[in-house]
Amino acid sequence: MVLSRQREPLAGVDVPEPEPGAGQVLVRVAACGVCRTDLHVVDGDLSEPKLPLIPGHQIVGTVVEAGEGAERHAPGDRVGIPWLGWTCGECRYCRSDRENLCPRARFTGYDVDGGYAELAAADERFCFPVPGGYPDLQAAPLLCAGLIGYRSLRMCGDAERLGLYGFGASAHIVCQVARHQGREVLAITKPGDADTQRFALELGAGWAGDPAGGSEVAEAGDGRPPVELDAAIVFAPAGELVPAALRALSPGGVVVCAGIHMSDIPSFPYEILWGERAVRSVANLTRRDGEDFLALAPEVPVRTEVSEYPLERANEALDDLRAGSFRGAAVLRIDQPARD
Ligand SMILES: [Zn+2]
Ligand SMILES: [Zn+2]
Fold this sequence. Notes:
alpha/beta; seven-stranded mixed β-sheet; six-stranded parallel β-sheet; 21% helix; binds zinc ion
């Protein structure tokens, strides 16, 4: 499924099969998660994708061929391909364990073709083994919703009371990890979104409601409004949630913005930042994040709730994500054509 121009739907197109270059593996894709970043790419919020582009950066598949010098993953191995597709290895960020900030980094489904396709080629050093026990479709959301969510959670330090603003693919995973770590979770959804609030409570949140403290399902939780958070992660791409989260934060707390794009943050009085509160973003991932999270996920164990779409219905999956009309994560199922 190819994006030829931003702000236009993807089109199902036959393209030449990718060839694995030196150090790359060719992967037969089984499943590819649909991320909000894909939506930002299609909608033009992110301005410099390669075009035409095959989106998708939560890829689960099987290695079918190793390029010259590639030896980490053998044909038949199941691997995951994440957003971080390549880094230079030489810059000051790469040399200080911050490859997520490499200015020359290339991203899957943005700078290089991704996984809305039957085949994908990737630098093998950036592919992860996928933990056993997760079917392909359920594993796919671990690769970005899970990884970036986990990095965001790490930025919250040892916060005991955690607010999650926007309860989609990433939050539904982070909620489970945070509960596993013994934290308290409060889920903040759109006003009136009782369905999502119930979903959050099912996954261990102690309270679910809206930014104003109202809750459709308060009686199902403990009825306490979301006050005095130790940390908040803002997943929804809505800038007005940043001051809202700051207002709910105790002194010394942090608001972590987890998305790659957000509408402008409205100005706010200094007093809500005062008290050593902080606002920060999380950008991309390091391979270390991936290794750590994929080892932790089966221990929790994280269970992903997946809405499945066949590859050719990728546009519908993106529309449903835009509308927030499913629980958990959207994942494309890639049926392989018959081969000789
Ligand atoms: Zn670099
Ligand atoms: Zn993503």
